[in-house]
Amino acid sequence: MRNTSTRMALACLCLGLVACAMIAPPARAAEINRRCVGTVAQLQQAIADANAGDEGSTWDIRVRTGTYSLSNGLAFNPSGDKDDKEFLLRGGWNQDCSQQTTRDPSFTTLYASNAFPAPEGADFLFKGDNSAYVIYAIHFSRFHVFQVDDKFCSAGQICPDTGYMVINKNKFSYGGWVSIIANDANALEMQQNLVANVGGLGERAVFIRDAAASESEIGFNTFADLACGSTGEYGLYVRTKNPEFMFHHNIVRSTSCATDLFVATSMGGIPITPRNNLLLTHGGGVEGDLIANGNVISADPQFVDPAKGDYRLAATSPAVNKGMSLVQALQADVSVPSTDLRGQVRLVGTRYDIGAHESPINDNLPAAIVVTSNSDSGPGSLRAAIATANAWVGDPVPQTITFDMPGNCPRTIALQSPLPDITDSVVIDGYTQPGSQRNSDNMGSDASVCVTLVPAVAGVTHALRVASDQPATTTLVADGLSFGSAFAAFATAAIDLRGGEGHVVRGSVFGGLLPQGGSIGSVPRGVMLRDNAVDAHIGASDAASRNYFGGLGNNAIQISGSATSGHYIVNNYIGVAPNGLAVQPNAADGIYAFAGATGVRIRDNVIDGSVRGIYLGSNTQGFTVLGNRIGVNAAGYGVAQHANDAGIVVGSGSGHHAIGEVNSYPNLISGNRTAGVQVQSSAGSGVTIVNNRIWNNGRDGMGLGIDLGDLGPLPNDDGDADAGPNGLQNYPVIIGLDQDSTPAKVTAALNTQADTSILFAFYHAPNCPGGQRGADAESLVGLAIASMNSGSGVVSVAVDLDPTHLTSGYLAATATNLDTGDTSELSPCFAVDTIFRDAFQKRGL
To answer: Which residues have a Cβ under 8 Å from the Cβ of 53 and sit 6 or more positions away?
Structure first.
């Protein structure tokens, strides 16, 4: 499970340092350039155009199936004034590139050279400070070096931050070296790749470095027949600084290397805990009991015919059915593929196979219970299927309910009463209904959801429920279902989870528009998490798991009760249409938590058109809110219709939350009618608000980016002795810049209490709303820590900045008490052009 670090960890990253500098990623570019290529010349021209294109543009290069022999490889590496691009290179397209007809990389092959081994310079290079990289469904062969590198941003620089790096479903063969380097990417995903017969250039065949990503997943890959230049070296060399780095379901086999997998702990690298991999030798920072964590220690994965390039698994392979089960994978937030590298259905047996290929071997997975009728009850109905699944109590493998109802998509099941409560673990898979399709789009959706549940009469409280008396062994997985209204709406919620553990709701639609088009009406609430339910996952990190909540009559997701905890709400569209762009307003809050709920993670959601995007009230504690887009659409843009009344609101004794973290993907909170983040007068303390992109809030004229107490600016007090929400923490004042130092230093001061350690966070924004709207914080540009050791008074800090990157706009800062976790409001705006013109000037506290 991806747990976020504690609030105090943000200080540890900077203790002993003068400052840390960084910047958040820009919004998705408006200019989208698509290229359909079918010849070597067209491919080379497309790469040249992408290099020369405007800064911030998107380049979607679609390669038709075929073989492309390049004399000197490819290089996408735009210059500094042309970077910050979103770059996609994907294979398997049809003649006019309107459809990706295959995702098997074997059908789209790029040769960097006609010679093997390839000469120096025959490389595939994708480098630079760009906002995103996607390399998908291509076979790269006969290369000297293959490298994806988002470029290192040194301290003091302001660089375009890479949102994500995705290297999925590719094949790499007969190359000298494969290198994947995520210097400042917020997410790194390398899934379902085959890397075979690579290496020989140096001490390692494959190099993966993750320096900053908050989400890193290396899974379902086959690294086979890796070669090293000499003995004592490594087949796969990994160095990560991310404590949540996920390394799972990989086969790692080398030929001439002393160690298959080596995890470096030098240069800031930390150990990892591999899960469900197959390898023989390992070294460095490999933690945990390998066997207990599902790893298979074997010298021979038993491929079908590796000499002929066939790395599928033989029937006797020790990798077959040795991965996680479906439920285990979803609960661990593992990106679950529906097909393997060659497009074969994934998960044939009780567990996934390890590596990039799924074998046809079924180790007694119970036969699915098939729904063949859209009738409310009777043979072949969903109601009968759930009753049958409940009767299998004690079976260690969850029952699976699939669909094969006659008729066109969507098929509607009109319920006369709630379906039977779930009393034994079950997977309800709506994507098995003919015509259904899982989403594969990173933004928006190309899904088709073909099973819709609606009430047939008034008074039907819910569709699916797990009652409060169910033990931890009861788990519901609801996948690919939609919930709407016809003659009436569900009285309580579509799905009501009150007991059990580890539930998963993914790829489903709650009211509004279906991804394929057409409205299904409304529901009052989408999902309720309450009473004794723990560790539910609403959505998951992969695109196929995204849920859609639109046009709801009440809260989209509601969490309540002191016994409910540990839930993970990730990658959902709330109040926005499945295309990620249009608004579908909700009548109440996007996510509403109250009555003492604890330890919930809210991550990577888009929340629009609600009263409050997120409300944390009534003694809720320990929530973590990261990487969400609140008040804007999935592309990062917002108009008045997208606005929530407020972005995030904390009230009624709620506290000790992390809204943003230093080493994590920031929340984007923009365009809301009042405050971006408000810690109300009734709230508690310990609400840490750091590394967020907060701007253009207070659309209606009142509301700061960060607001403590009532809406509007809060005055500082001498010694910061007052009390209230977040301790009414004083904000710092930026007092000038010493341009003669190298690098330049921006200085701020804070009137504070004795014996406190303060984290100063500095932000830049192009605009300053001012007045009752306060300062904006579009990019985090520096961090520093200072302490007031005795007696209250003024403490000051200086932060390194690169003045060549700050020639206009405004600075603002916050102060966070590291002992209590309390964050202040943003300081008043400080005009950048003024400080750089006048060299050094001071403003009073």
So the answer is: 31, 33, 59, 78, 82, 85
